[in-house]
Amino acid sequence: MPKASEIKKHAAIEYNSRVMIVRDIERSVPQGRSGGSLYRMRMYDVVTGGKVDETFKADEMLTLADLIRRPVMFSYIDGDEYVFMDEEDYTPYNLNKSSIEEQVLFVSEDTKGLLAVIVEGSPVSIDLPSSVELVIEDTSPSIKGASASARTKPATMSTGLIVQVPEHISNGDRIKINTDEKKFMGRADN
Fold it and tell me: Most buried by CB count within 10 Å: which residue of 73, 124, 180, 187?
């Protein structure tokens, strides 16, 4: 059983006899209190989609829920549902856009390393790889000789994600992005 301080975003925990996916964690250290940090977690019920905000002490023990991660690839969009296909047995997993809003900004048809998170037979989330490659759809024109400058400009990816990129990067470039920090890592190897 992990302590609250060891829980990461997108973990599935059992809470009040329900399975919850942790979407966000804020750590705070109250002033004048010995004993340490508090972890405020925004969690979503995997069955109802209901939102719960709860604060745990750093050393409070939490129970991880039984979940399975399956390798998947993005297949298509059907209304508000994103459909992912299991890479091994081709089972389709439908996820409502609202439950994976943050993740879909990093997902294109050729994104590798995606995992569907399945709890009690139902897909509840998508785990992203540590980095993805996306194509820049819109950014201001590149500036010749700007590669030495540290200035950046916003670039919109084909998925709608906006990241800061160096000035010498231009439309149509394929770049590598860190999914945890939403940061530009460099041009992708073609």
Answer: 124
Q: How many residues does the chain have?
A: 190
Strands 51-57 and 63-64: unpaired
pLDDT band at 180 (very low <50, low <70, confident <90, very high): confident
* Averaged pLDDT score across all residues of the chain: 87
Residue 146 clears pLDDT 60, i.e. is over it: no
Rg (CA), the chain: 19
8-40: buried (b, 16+ CB within 10 Å) or exposed (e) per residue? eebbbbebeeebbbbbebeeeeeeeeeeeebbe
DSSP sequence for 23-83: EEEEEE--TT-TT--EEEEEEEETTT--EEEEEEETT-B-EEPP-EEEEEEEEEEETTEEE
Distance separating alpha carbons of residues 106 and 93, to the nearest angstrom = 18
pTM over 0.90: no
Residue 37 tokens read as 């940090």
Query: Per-residue pLDDT for 105 more than 60?
Result: yes
Q: Which of 118, 117, 113 is nearest to 130 (CA)?
A: 113
